[in-house]
Specification:
single chain, 3 domains, Immunoglobulin-like, 560 residues, 13 helices, Aminopeptidase, alpha+beta, globular
Length: 560
């Protein structure tokens, strides 16, 4: 009996250790960024985790432990471990199999053309199969479990539900994106300039149509949005009209995105394009200079042939930002102010980048990493007319929507210049949490400094000779109350904007000078915190939250 007890105890201890080890391995994978999960080593780690779970199950089914299964209390615990280990093994094995299958398809790089569409369809199939495994998961008894086991079961049950939802979303999203790629589809491409900013995006200064068919990409007709101004404005939402109607955003493309909600901007841009050209589009995508740099890291450098004896232009990820924000204007000034040729060259660069992305063989891990980085900074935004495609964009974080707890700080350029690259933005956020039915209180201090150099090209300095005229636009949480401004603040916009409350203050900053504004507001009791929305500026704002600097950007969620 003593020998049997020792043997049973050893098996149970080892089973618990295997179960914990497998759990830790899976949790470590969850903490990895998305692009890391596309690495082949992940398959090995998933297979190792599955082996740990299977070994744990074998131990609780061993001859030494079998007699304990008939006991009323111990038997329930063993049956629970058996079911949890078996389900975890099945789920991780399915994940490893699906990942291995997809990695095999992109071993030589991302496919092109029809193979690209087929690959996205296969992602949907893998998600569907994984979801079926999750639906069959048997987690064993749920009642009368000891504390650690009950906690492990609850955690796994929650994880299974979350994974089921994620696989369902992935299935639908991949199918929708495959349909968009298969086409024929027309996507309105808006090129945003970070040297002349709007809210959560650069100003849309160029537009064209990206045609998708059988997985192939072709860009046609990039042109300045100044040439696309509508004679008659299309209808705009009432909230936008009350806040920004005086900027004519339903007629003037360059005043789109006076607000940060791209889920409003996208459909409005589609209606404006159809009103101007008679052509309906299936989606709208906004890409700024930082997104262009991200894509060039994957696609490699592009060359645009020079005209009339001008040298060829070679652009890569290390040069595109400086060239787009400053260099192209210096070149045009040196050529006698020929800005029409400069705009044509911009379209040529965009078309060359699209051709680079259209070819196969791109590094899939690098592509996902760069797209993810562009999405996180709001350098890449998307809207689709079809609900299922728009849902795919939303799940990918591309829709540019705001939540009720969102906080966005933007500066809208109103000086007809390219000075945002020289405008330093510093934001300080102090939070005083409420309690016992009392609201939390936030103090937001924004300092803007204009460091425009005297030798900047005349086109960059603009008609204001380097003075930055604009609007400090703050999207406060929708539940904000008791909003207080500086006494000398010149209010130009205030009111609700979907889930947010917008405050717009006029600023005028000569070169070398700075301004500082403080805004105070309260949040209702029970508010969990604030979600900071990226500004898509270059250079980005420097945040200090509760006295702690965040030079690389603030955390997405700031608790009270």
């Amino acid at each position: 009996m003593a020998a049997w007890a020792v043997a049973a105890a050893v098996q149970l201890v080892l089973a618990a250790a295997d179960l914990r080890d497998g759990q830790r391995m899976v949790e470590a994978l969850h903490a990895e960024p998305v692009e890391a999960l596309l690495d082949a080593s992940v398959v090995d780690e998933l297979e190792e985790a599955a082996a740990r779970f299977e070994r744990s199950q074998r131990r609780v089914r061993s001859l030494a432990v079998a007699p304990l299964r008939v006991l009323p209390v111990a038997g329930r615990q063993l049956r629970s471990v058996d079911a949890l280990a078996g389900s975890a093994a099945a789920i991780t094995s399915a994940g490893a199999s699906g990942a291995e299958h997809l990695l095999g398809r992109v071993e030589a790089g991302m496919p092109a053309g029809r193979a690209r569409v087929d690959f996205v369809h296969e992602v949907a199939v893998v998600a569907r199969r994984t979801r079926a495994v999750l639906a069959r998961a048997d987690l064993g008894p749920a009642r009368a479990l000891i504390g650690p086991l009950a906690e492990a079961r609850a955690r796994l049950a929650s994880e299974v539900q979350a994974l089921e939802r994620a696989m369902e979303d992935l299935d639908r999203s991949a199918g929708a994106i495959a349909g968009l790629l298969d086409g024929p589809s027309r996507v309105l491409l808006l090129a945003a300039n970070n040297a002349e900013m709007r809210a959560g995006s650069g100003m849309f200064l160029n537009a064209g149509v990206l045609e998708l068919e059988a997985g192939r990409l072709r860009l046609r007709g990039m042109q300045p949005t100044a040439d696309l101004r509508l004679d008659e404005a299309v209808p705009i939402p009432d909230e936008i009209r009350r806040l920004w109607g005086w900027m004519e955003p339903g007629r003037e493309w360059r005043n789109l995105a006076a607000w940060p909600r791209f889920d409003v901007t996208g459909p409005l841009a589609a209606r404006m394009w159809e009103a101007r050209t008679g052509e309906a589009v299936d989606a709208v995508v906004a890409v700024d200079v930082l997104a262009l740099a991200a894509l060039l890291r994957v696609a490699g450098p592009v060359t645009v042939a020079g005209e009339d004896g001008a040298p060829d232009l070679v652009i890569d990820h290390t040069t595109v930002v400086d060239w787009a924000l400053l260099g192209q204007y210096a070149e045009a000034e040196a050529a006698g102010g020929d800005h029409d040729a400069r705009r044509d060259r911009l379209g040529d660069v965009a078309a060359a980048v699209v051709r680079g992305l259209d070819r196969g063989g791109l590094d899939p891990i690098a592509l996902v990493r760069e797209l993810r980085g562009a999405q996180r900074g709001r350098h890449l935004l998307a809207w689709a007319a079809r609900r299922e495609v728009q849902e795919a964009f939303r799940h990918a974080g591309l829709d540019g929507g705001l939540e009720r707890e969102s906080l966005a700080v933007a500066v809208l350029n109103r000086g007809a210049n390219k000075l945002d690259q020289f405008l330093d933005v510093r934001v300080e956020l102090e939070l005083a949490p409420g309690g016992a039915g009392r609201p939390g209180r936030a103090t937001l201090t924004v300092e803007l400094r204009n460091r425009t150099p005297q030798d900047a090209p005349a086109y960059v300095r603009g008609p204001t000779e380097g003075r930055y005229d604009g609007i400090l636009a703050l999207s406060l949480p929708g539940g904000a109350t008791g909003v207080e401004l500086d006494e000398d603040a010149e209010l130009v916009a205030a009111g609700s904007d979907g889930p947010s409350y917008t405050v717009g203050l006029w600023v005028s900053i000569p070169p070398g000078a700075s301004v500082r504004h403080e805004v105070r507001f309260e949040q209702p009791p029970g508010s969990e915190g604030l979600r900071i929305v990226p500004a898509a500026r270059h250079p980005g704002p420097v945040w200090t939250i509760r006295g702690v600097p965040h030079p690389d950007g603030p955390p997405n969620h700031v608790p009270w």
